[in-house]
Amino acid sequence: MSNSLFSLSGKAAIVTGASRGLGRYLASALAEAGADLAITSRRRESLADFQAELQSRGRRVLALELDVRDFESIQRAVREVADAWGRIDILVNNAGCNVRKPALEVGWDDWNLVLDTNLRGTFFMSQAAAREMIKRRYGRIINIGSVTCVAGCAGLGPYGASRGGVKQLTMSLADDWGPFGITVNCLAPGWFKTAQNAVLYEDQSWVEYLCDRIPLKRPGQPHDLDGAAVFLASDAGAYVTGQTLLVDGGISTGATRALPKKAFAPGAD
Fold this sequence. Notes:
Elements: E1 12-15, H1 21-32, E2 36-41, H2 48-56, E3 61-65, H3 71-85, E4 90-93, H4 108-136, E5 139-144, H5 157-177, E6 182-189, H6 204-213, H7 226-233, E7 244-247
Parallel strand pairs: 1-2, 1-4, 2-3, 4-5, 5-6, 6-7
């Protein structure tokens, strides 16, 4: 198989929420594959060091201020990329937020914050980028979901609802825009340590419990997402659309712990 299938050389990509965490990992992976990057954050200054790093690797980089909860901010950012480069080939909808509370404590504003950012923002970013992609009849949209797309987790009601919505939205948009040469997929990470959830990893007993549930016995590491992201963004994934790709170490299998040895004895049910 030719490595050119996975090359993003000459492609222009937008990665939202790229100042830290998964967004930074994903943007770095696309840059390594050859893409030029438009990286966004609500505060442009938070992108300065990452912009310089990507430029040192020979990439063209735009650093843009973007709030995906603001319709005009979305239109402005997409227009700026299109004006600068004349094309948008790839969009990674990574910008997101979370509110961890027991369901009985979730407030109206908590719900709106999470759903407006994770679900509504994903839709309207996709819509704005797709208008540009349709002009060239080519595009790759990667919506960032989560293992909570397919599994529940106490204390993550609004977040799980938003990510489940992203999974369903992905299928609908794939159907809408497939005739224009645009693929739309959902990349769903499992448990990765980021600034957003770092406090959880301070509890060693919780980390041990988590690893016990993951067949590969460890949380995700930054580069564990690289291959999946490049695959979905490249010509290698040209016939893949409407899918949710879980990169979760297997936790979505529902495993809890290994069966005791006696379970494998002859005659055991």
